[in-house]
Amino acid sequence: MGLLRIMMPPKFQLLALLAFAVAMFFLENQIQKLEESRVKLERAIARHEVHEIEERHTQDGLREREAPSAAGGEDMVVIYNRVPKTASTSFTNIAYDLCGKNRYHVLHINTTKNNPVMSMQDQVRFVKNVTEWGEMKPAFYHGHVSFLDFTKFGVKKKPVYINVIRDPIERLVSYYYFLRFGDDYRPGLRRRKQGDKKTFDECVSAGGSDCAPEKLWLQIPFFCGHYSECWNVGSHWALEQAKYNLVNEYLLVGVTEELEDFVMMLEAALPRFFRGATELYKTGKKSHLRKTSEKKPPTKESSARLQQSAIWKMENEFYEFALEQFQFVRAHAVREKDGELYLLAQNFFYEKIYPKTN
């Protein structure tokens, strides 16, 4: 440029500078336009990608509505391995009343002679049925069967276990009179001990076998499962295993004395099955039908005699353990107002969700 200034007249030098400035301005302008075009192109690509993602989500949502997923509970299985004389029939009637409306199947597990322990081959068959019988899903299985650990059979998705237990002496008294007089559910059916008019108190006083402390040993083995030690009366290992299973394998275990609360909490936890259960329990007739006939409460002396046994102490410890766990869950789920129980609203939310979307 210095050489041009020497060789060119001043007028031409000015023109050259102007031409250079115009060229630089034009070049910068073109660069800016290219940058703007690049930004627009990137935004267009981003919008296209977002549109594709939204389209995929919409299609996925349509597919989920057309073929409901596991998250919707369409392949869920609930097992209620009901303990005898714990209001199990009253509760099961609710499931039968709701199955048509809520669109699920109810299946009764009827074992030979009401044996709560299945053979190994029947365990395999049962696990296979529960997991692979797609036509029956969603399903509610119920029966007097002890807990069965599905993980032992290589099953990845386990069923949901629920149950109800009762004060051990109250349960035994109810069972004692049920065997002699039946109940108002099927009053014409002849029971095994029909004709025996001896009261529970008379049985305890005479040291009878039907009211012996060994007869209390039932709720622990039902929760303990299909291990030989579970059925050894008075086994401390069985007690601890039953506690472990109750906490780790069961969604919810209620108590007969607070059955309405149990129904309410199940409706909140599993609406796919139990939507409408609380109202049905309060107003339905079937739920309150089954009552043991001719039942007489035991005297304090009879209860005290049973409570001296180590077996009662263990069964009662398990009952108290289950009751405490149930009341803990309930305390964090419901509130009482004007004598009525109300479920708590959702008490958590999500925040700081990343990455951010425009």
TrEMBL record:
Keywords: Coiled coil, Disulfide bond, Glycoprotein, Golgi apparatus, Membrane, Signal-anchor, Transferase, Transmembrane, Transmembrane helix. It is found in: Golgi apparatus membrane. Signal peptide: none annotated. Residues 24-51 form a coiled coil. It is a single-pass type II membrane protein. Pfam families: Sulfotransfer_2 (PF03567). InterPro entries: Heparan_SO4_2-O-STrfase, P-loop_NTPase, Sulfotransferase. Its main location: Golgi. Residues 285-304 are annotated as: Disordered. One of its GO terms (cellular component) is Golgi membrane. One of its GO terms (molecular function) is heparan sulfate 2-sulfotransferase activity. Belongs to the sulfotransferase 3 family. This is Heparan sulfate 2-O-sulfotransferase 1. It comes from Salvelinus namaycush (Lake trout). The lineage of its organism: Eukaryota, Metazoa, Chordata, Craniata, Vertebrata.
